[in-house]
Amino acid sequence: MQKKEIKLEFEEFENETELTPEDRNLLIKALESAARSYAPYSEFHVGAAVLLENGEVICGSNQENAAYPSGLCAERVALFYANSQYPGVAVKAMAITAKADHFVMARPITPCGSCRQVIAETENRQQSKIKLIMQGESGPVHVMDGIKNLLPFTFYEKQLQKTKK
């Protein structure tokens, strides 16, 4: 047996004022999107903003449903809309933020497992990494270069090959 280690890298900024204007603007759009979420059950509002290579910004917010699995996360709302409206245009960056009704989100929010897989699929399809910018309502901001820093063991379509050799 061998013990192996995975190293994850990210940048931590004290707050959004340390970001580039482009990244800060994207994070502001994500926070505005969180305010438009439909979250009557969890009272946890998530917003995402996606910057496309053509300069378009697509926003999404979590949309809950009384049948919990029927809801959709902000990240997937934004990515699916971006791909349906701008097929073939690469995603350059994604900002994600959240706020809750009964407590303050003072740490960066990260995508759930399903959203991580969708981000991985998007990166794989476009053959380029997506910069991830994550913050709570306030406080530190984490910036990562690509989803592998959050999902090191990604499931790809090559694992679905149907022919054995």
Fold topology:
Layout: E1 11-13, H1 21-34, E2 44-52, E3 57-61, H2 74-85, E4 91-100, H3 113-126, E5 131-135, E6 141-145
Parallel strand pairs: 4-5
Antiparallel strand pairs: 1-6, 2-3, 2-4, 5-6
Structure commentary:
With 165 residues, the chain is an alpha+beta fold. It has one domain (12-158): Cytidine Deaminase, domain 2. 24% of the residues lie in helices and 22% in strands. The two termini are 28 Å apart. The mean pLDDT is 94.
Share of helix, binned: 10-25%
Q: How many helical stretches?
A: 3
Rounded mean pLDDT is 94
The CATH architecture category equals 3-Layer(aba) Sandwich
The CATH class turns out to be Alpha Beta
The end-to-end span amounts to 28 Å
Q: How do the SSEs run, as a string of H and E? A: EHEEHEHEE
Major beta sheet summary: 6 strands, mixed
Low-confidence stretches: none
Give a short summary of the structure.
The chain is an alpha+beta fold.
Write out key terms for the chains shown.
165 residues, alpha+beta, Cytidine Deaminase, domain 2, 3 helices, globular
